[in-house]
Amino acid sequence: MNILASTSFIGNTGFANHAKSFFTSLDKLTPVKVRNSTIGDSWKGYSLECHNKEPYITKQMKDMLVLQTLRTENSWIDKPLYKHDPNFDPDINIILAEHNNHYFYNEYNGYKIAYNVWETDKYDPKFLEQLKTFNELWVPSKWQKQISIDQGYPKNKIFVIPEGVDSKFKPGNDPEGKFKILVVGRWEHRKGTRESIKAFLNAFPNNDNVELILCVDNWVNQDKLNSTENRLKHYGLEDPRITIKSFLSKKEYIKLLQECHVFLSASKSEGWNLPLIEAIACGTPSIYSKCSGQLEFTKGKGLGVNILGKEAAPGFPGNYYTVDEDHLVEQLKEVYNNYNFWKEYYLKFSKTIRKNFSWKKAAKKAYDRIEQIKKENKPVLNVHFVKEPYLRLVGGVGKYKVDFIDNSNNKTLFSTILKPDHWAKAYRNYFVDWKIVVKDENDNIVAQHDFNAKDKRVYISLGSKSLGDTLAWFPVVEEFRKKHNCKLIVSTFHNDWFEKNYPQLEFVAPGTNVKDIYAMYEIGWYYKGESDKVNYNHHPVDFRTIPLQKTASTILGVEHEEVIPKVTFKRGKRPIKEKYICFSPHASASAKYWHNIYGWQTVVDYLNNKGYKVIQISKEKYSSSFETTKLPRNKQIKNVIDATGLSMEDTVNLLSHCELYIGVSSGLAWLSWTLETPVVMISGFSSEWTEFTTNVKRVINKDVCNSCFNNYKLDAGDWNWCPVHKNTPRQFECTRKISPESVIESIVGYLI
After folding, report:
1. What is the pLDDT of residues 383-406, one digit of tens each?
2. Which pTM value belongs to this model?
3. pLDDT (tens digit per residue) in 19-38
4. How many whole angstroms separate alpha carbon 398 and alpha carbon 303?
5. Which residues are catalytic?
6. All structural domains of the chain with their residue ranges
7. DSSP reduced 3-state for 476
8. Residue 679 forms beta bridges with which residues?
């Protein structure tokens, strides 16, 4: 699982230390990448150079930093500070969300967690709306959880993840020398800096044994006074007992906490108060105001200072808490007068703090929550089978293994790894009894979809304009509908032939954009582009090795059975009284023609001698393509009734009443079969099982080259197509070597 942490951490602020400690600890449990979104360059007193020198940032954290965000007067821009990994796609985003850096919150995909530490009793309305866009909110205390709920944040989306304290913060040697009172933080109104100094002066007006250490230099100047010295002068708080220290290294800071007698925090409100918990962890008696987030670990025990009420937070929405300054003075006197008692008390308190609060524990609680998120947020499957099986994972967390399985044999046909809101296709355009299984990173099944078209809309397109293809394939469409009990939409180039006899089907014109469908299949012949290579994304088998009608059966996954379609043709009266036979010499390719130059005339003469009228039917008398074969042929077949160029209605009528149809592999042969008119088919181009097998006699010469279609792709643009013997004396020998006598022999049985 990829976790991206975004934060602002610079200097020695509590927020910065929180970010560094928390994310470093979490990284030990599950890998975390950290993005630094520092508010920097345009702020006086800060530079990139100081960031790189900042002693609290470990090498590991430096390596994890990937992005620096800089503020301009009117906008925010992203500027690379460390190399950004463009391939890092987070599953979970944890964003330490300050009120002033929410501009990047929606930059990445994935589950979004806001970890916010707030310090008033009310959010900025705009910031609150930003927080509501997250999947959930982490806060350090029950206090902040309650103020969030009070403002309308969903209770079930808030989780308390306390901060911690570094294990290096622990009791040291007993303090020596003067009684030292330490104040740590920024000089600002919320921190109660002036109140702390005034309380010191009021509690110990003439006591030279007491000193106040101020570690309150700002990393960002918040007034024009620029320094603690100037501020003391400005507010009339100068006193020789006041010592000023700048921000220290971590080692120096811990030593200072251990060596002072009292830690003083008169803060008017805190999201957590990291210096306070660090001081208590060192066993240092600590005075604090009994309000806000710090109650999470103090529980109001020890040297807490009472709160009188609330006061407006200058520059922020909501309120701070008003600290009882008199009680603050009293607590300073109390700890001075009874130091040994309070030292022993806080040494015990230190054990409790270090036992219950650590960054390791904080990270573990976060890690457990992340694991729970994975369990709770199972992906929803958006699935359809339009041309090919398609799956989109909606929601979820982390990475998922997706298996596309053929349910009929439990064989996995395609596997991939997906993230939420990503999709995958298994490139099979034909029917497969699909089972799509989604597993989490622990190989647990979290979702599954089995193909089920019952009562669902399914679209089947017959893409061929060929008469024969349509008649061969259409019955299979109806078999698919019956098998799956689906609401079937179908398109053909001859819809009017079937609409009346298949009222259970919805017919649409070819090319219609059919919406809201569960599955779609296109029946046809598909090649990869090479002349002889079948596109097996569209066909489960090579269609040249199976009957034409079975092509549709294999694409649609139904059992093959030769079925004659039910067509609606208007049949008139018998067109002529005499007995007659229809024939057509034409086909869609030269390879299908009967290339015996005497063949058709010989057969026609025989039939005439037997008293039959012979009618030639087709679109045209002559085939222009036939001229390109460079072989001699009859320019015109004599003694026939010319019925070429008739309408489909008249052609159907002729075929319906004739005793026999004679032809080659063509649409008219399939039409005759559909009309249940006996057929004699002349062919060397395809094997005898390729077309229909009922009510037909095939004439084929197995002693010469034959059945090339079943081994080679037909090049429809080359009318001289003959894959084995093209441009040789043996070209088209498959039909040239079929004698008129063999055709007549097949006819005899049909003659009256």
Report:
1. 999 999 999 999 888 889 999 999
2. 0.74
3. 888 988 898 888 887 766 54
4. 46
5. 469
6. 3-160, 179-357, 377-450, 457-556, 580-750
7. helix
8. 661, 696
